[in-house]
Write a structure and sequence with these properties.
This protein is of the alpha+beta class. It has a domain at 63-285 and 344-396: Cytochrome P450 (Cytochrome p450, Orthogonal Bundle). It is 49% helix and 13% strand. The chain has 16 helices and 14 strands. It has helices at residues 14-18, 23-32, 52-59, 95-103, 109-114, 116-133, 138-143, 145-155, 159-173, 178-201, 207-213, 223-254, 256-264, 269-280, 311-314, 349-366, and strands at residues 35-38, 46-49, 65-66, 135-137, 215-216, 219-220, 285-290, 294-296, 299-301, 306-310, 367-372, 377-378, 387-389, 391-396. Strands 1-2-10-7-3 form a five-stranded mixed beta sheet. It has a three-stranded antiparallel beta sheet with strand order 4-14-11. 41% of the residues are buried. It binds protoporphyrin IX containing FE. Protoporphyrin IX containing FE is lined by residues 67, 71, 88-89, 100, 147, 151, 233, 236-237, 240-241, 244, 282-283, 286, 338-340, 344, 346-348, 351-352.
């Protein structure tokens, strides 16, 4: 395999993820320059961290590596992330803990278990609809529906408003024109404003009410904080699951023997799900900002420096995983970093694993075959990794 000289590779070029293969580049970086300085381009300068151990070390030190200036690289002209210091993911300790405990109850094992039957019903409807459609887009019509349904339930979006929100999120976070996407996003925010006011008048047992009535340091959250957190939960709760499930399905379409093996032996489901999470690594990068001078491996980082953690690279690090470039349904141990680590470890981890288990199990139970009917279209993004569409035909069992 020829390894591209990394000088010729721009890690912030979405084409690298859409049409290229970033893995040889990440491998070169892990071997030769694991904490590498990148000069400013349309993005500000940053350090790339590509080894598993270094990425885990950064995740585990929330004091030195802050989230409050944003957790994603933003083009220079875009300014600071408006959620900085306000949303759960973009808050540092100690405020972060207080904010997390406001919403944590909805994500415990017990809360997720309580939703399992409803999830199963929802998936059955999704699959029945996909079968009726004949050919459908697995990404939007199958993988995207369950996570949105679940997050709507948690947030207290009434059933009759969910289809409308589904259409808006598909538009807002899909591949359409930027203007149409921005309008759809504004409509989502307007919807949350209205839902927030409804919950102020009539609190219910849901996440929006928890944000409306919850206090951090003895103070209620501002309306803007509530809205930014709602938006974050909606995006965080839907986008990555959709991409992981669709990426997993594509992997199974490429490896039909693994799909059949899973059909025959459902005991493999837990390790299969972890391997799909590792393999798809849908959160391409997560960023931190250094708060004081620190040495990371052999590099001295200064306060204010940006540090970018590349998840797909950590999850293919040969120093940590045996045969990392092999998709192995039975891989164990599999302490991948697809869901982050440390203080900000994905709040929806249990939810994600349950959604994936139910979706794949129902697909195995209720379909005879799933065939790809056209080319898979990759996303052009440096933020999330995966497919924009995957045309399939689902034949019922
Ligand atoms: C395959 C699915 C998912 C992936 C790959 C994923 C990935 C991640 C990652 C990498 C982080 C760490 C961010 C950081 O350290 O800055 C994170 C945090 C978070 N995730 Fe997920 N996530 C997934 C599903 C979900 C779901 C289903 C929800 C909610 C229903 C969710 C809600 C959150 C929240 C609220 C945080 C911030 C937690 C905090 O800052 O304390 N995620 N996720």
């Amino acid at each position: 395999m020829t390894v591209l000289a990394p000088e010729n590779v721009n890690l912030v070029d979405p084409e690298l993820y859409a049409t290229g293969d970033p893995y040889p580049v990440f491998r070169w970086m892990r071997d030769h320059d694991p904490v590498r300085r990148h000069d400013a381009t349309e993005y500000p300068a940053f350090w790339s961290v590509t080894r598993y151990d270094d990425i885990r070390a950064v995740y585990n030190d929330a004091r030195v590596y802050s989230s409050a200036q944003g957790i994603l690289l933003r083009p220079q002209g875009h300014g600071q992330d408006p959620g900085g210091g306000r949303t759960l993911a973009l808050t540092d300790p100690p405020r972060h803990k207080a904010l997390r405990s406001l919403v944590a109850d909805w994500f415990t094992t017990r809360s997720v278990r309580a939703l399992e039957d409803a999830m199963r019903d929802a998936v059955r409807q999704v699959v029945a609809r996909a079968v009726e459609l004949g050919t459908c887009d697995f990404v939007t019509d199958v993988a995207g529906r369950l996570p949105l349904y679940v997050i709507c339930r948690l947030m207290g979006v009434p059933a009759h408003e969910q289809e409308m929100l589904f259409a808006l999120t598909t538009q807002a976070f899909g591949a359409g024109e930027p203007e149409a996407r921005s309008i759809a996003h504004q409509e989502i925010m307007a919807y949350f404003v209205e839902l927030m006011y409804r919950r102020m008048d009539e609190p219910a047992d849901d996440l929006v009410s928890a944000l409306v009535n919850g206090e951090v340091d003895g103070e209620l959250l501002t309306e803007e904080d509530i809205l930014l957190n709602c938006d974050n939960l909606l995006v965080g709760g839907t986008e990555n699951v959709r991409l992981a499930v669709a990426g997993g399905m594509r992997t199974f379409l490429e490896r039909p023997a693994d799909w059949e093996r899973l059909r025959e032996d459902r005991g493999l489901m837990p390790t299969a799900i972890e391997e799909v999470l590792r393999w798809t690594s849908t959160a391409t990068h997560i960023m931190r900002t250094v708060t004081e001078p620190v040495v990371l491996r052999d590099r001295v980082l200064e306060a204010g420096d940006r540090v970018v953690l590349w998840t797909p690279s950590a999850n293919r690090d040969e120093r940590h995983f045996e045969n990392p470039d092999v998709f192995d349904l039975t891989r164990r141990p599999n302490r991948h970093l697809a869901l982050g680590a440390g203080e900000h470890f994905c709040l929806g981890a249990m939810m994600t694993r349950t959604e994936m288990r139910i979706l794949f199990s129902e697909l195995l139970d209720s379909t005879r075959s799933i065939e790809q009917t056209g080319p898979a279209v990759p996303l052009r993004s440096i933020v999330v990794n995966g497919l924009e569409s995957l045309p399939v035909r689902i034949t019922p069992a």
